[in-house]
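Sample intake — Kinesin-like protein
Collected from: Molossus molossus
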Amino acid sequence: MASLRQGCGDLRGLVSTFTQSCQGSLNEARGQVSWALGALSVSEAGPQLPEKQQGPPPGCPGRILELKGNIRVLCRLRPGTPSSLVSSEPGLDGSVTTCYRGHRRRFRLDWVFPPDASQEEVFRELEPAVLSCLRGYSVCIFTYGQTGTGKTYSMEGPPEDPGIAPRALQSLFREMRTGGQHQVTLSMVEIYNEAVRDLLAPGPPERLAVRQGPAGQGGIQVAGLTYWDVPNLETLHQMLSLGRSNRATAATAMNQHSSRSHALVTLTLQAASSTRGSGTTGTLHLVDLAGSERAWKAGGVCRARGDPDDAQRLREARTINRSLLALGGVMTALRSRRAHVPFRDSQLTRLLQPALGPGATAVLLLQISTRPEDLGETVCSLKFAERVGQVELGPARRRRARRSGTPSSLSTDTPLTGTPCTPTPSPGSPPSPGPDSGSSSALVPQEDLLS
Ligand SMILES: Nc1ncnc2c1ncn2[C@@H]1O[C@H](COP(=O)(O)OP(=O)(O)OP(=O)(O)O)[C@@H](O)[C@H]1O
């Protein structure tokens, strides 16, 4: 009788959630169709569009993005033991040559940074993409590679030698000071063991639900995510370091301070319309991916160390690898222009969906090791980068605000009145969502609001 009751309860639960799950699948199908239609119109319109409609004039940062393609792959070699098995030709259109299991293979990349490249040199190559966000572009910069190869070093960097994120913020605020009114909004999440957590939540971080946006509007919603209006650079730095300190890290076999989660920082930059042009909404996603670490390597070390936390490390390694595999699957589908792109396969790919949609620009910074014992991983990473380099997202597109869509409470580097790091949150909603976007996540750019 008890088991009959239990069965009956289960059945009731299933029935009650059935409509909801159907609606979810329907919404996703709609999203896929509108994504495919968007891709189609982009590929049809792309090269034929007159320059005026394509974006900024020659010489401007956005122009470089359009001409160089919407996904660029940069590679940075970690300093350390030089090996004759990994050699590189640094610079623009550089290459990395590996000699693995008797096979020589040359991988071409958009830019290769040698082991002695400085943080400044790396950022110089990325700065145009970063600044294009102020002109309404959506840009995603992500670091990818084996654990311990320097992803966090490149993205964050030590205080005495800052990496991409702090330099990007500084550069954006410097540029904003030169004129115009802007509003900057920040959100920061991590994906740890497939759970999405708000790194800037005012209370204890809880697991957040990721959902498909309302029907016909596409996009992804992260329920309960906090969005912060950031008035100045100092506050932004403080918030980022707060978020960073909330991130899950642990000592692993390969790295003493290994990031065990993927971290996604999203800045939305709204520029008010002025005599120089209409308002725009740009988005900058900075993604520090957790490192890939072969499960067998992690497993071997787990057994050898007999540490009680090692089972946890092994589980983390597996989920990280699964999500990176899903990212690889998405890249393959995008490259082959498949009708179905498996964005739903992991939380990482779901959240990255808007950043990899038509009209967006993505820059992959691949980190590799030159150590002979890492060669297998290095080749895998380079193959992944090669796949990414062949993806086409269509020409980069700017998002202009409607004429009436000027952001409401604009600020230009206004000094914070009150305690730093306590700006006004706008829980669960993005900054002034456009009527077409239907998105409640800062990870989701508003639709192309070309007026
Ligand atoms: N270019 C570099 N110059 C100097 N030190 C570096 C460089 N790249 C990496 N390192 C050092 O190597 C170590 C590992 O780097 P980091 O933590 O950034 O790796 P990671 O790829 O983010 O690892 P994980 O995926 O495990 O988080 C750190 O001590 C870092 O300071």
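Post-analysis note: The mean pLDDT is 73.
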